[in-house]
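The methods section describes the discrete structure representation at length, but only in general terms. An entry of this sort, consisting of the sequence and the corresponding backbone structure tokens, reads as follows.
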Amino acid sequence: MPVKMKIYSDYMCPFCYLAYAYVKELEKTWDLDVEWISFELHPETPAEGILLKDRFGEEKTKCMVEGLREKGNPYGLEFGDLYFMPNSRLVLEASEYAKESGKFEDFHQKVFYEHFTNLVDIGKKDVILKLAHDCGIDEKELESRFDENFYTGRIESIHKAAKDSGVGKTPYFVVENRFSIERPGSIDDIMDVLRRTGKECGQRG
């Protein structure tokens, strides 16, 4: 039987991109049933986004990027010169439509890649619609849902329920509804929890 794993994630969080790479690597040896949950980590972020140096300071931002590159390199992740944190509300809403359209995996990977490697501002509606189109998603219907605030209540409800249950940082893993990991430092942290489930049968091969 597969190991059930929920991951609370936000596209503006570089550690969630690392988590995506960790999960892809783990799926080579484990049978995982993964659900990515759209959690808006910083809803207070201005609609136009904010410079990382204004939020964290230049030195901390530089150290963070260096650390991300070191951790991401073994998994083929390339982090650009990150300098900007977008408001992620719309792109999280778009991911909900991508799930309904059966295009979530493509959209999920593309948003992470374009933002953290190519430094694309994923807070802009026209950018999100272009990414959706590139993934085979009906961008006109998506834009209509944006205009109707179709997913706004859902994102807000997820955020409240997650905060009430103890989710504070992203990524936040819940494994088999029993074990939780907040922002794992490495793939080994997740592996340890998988082993604790006792589901050795979840391992492939």
In short: The first helix runs from residue 14 to 26. The first strand starts at residue 3 and ends at 9.
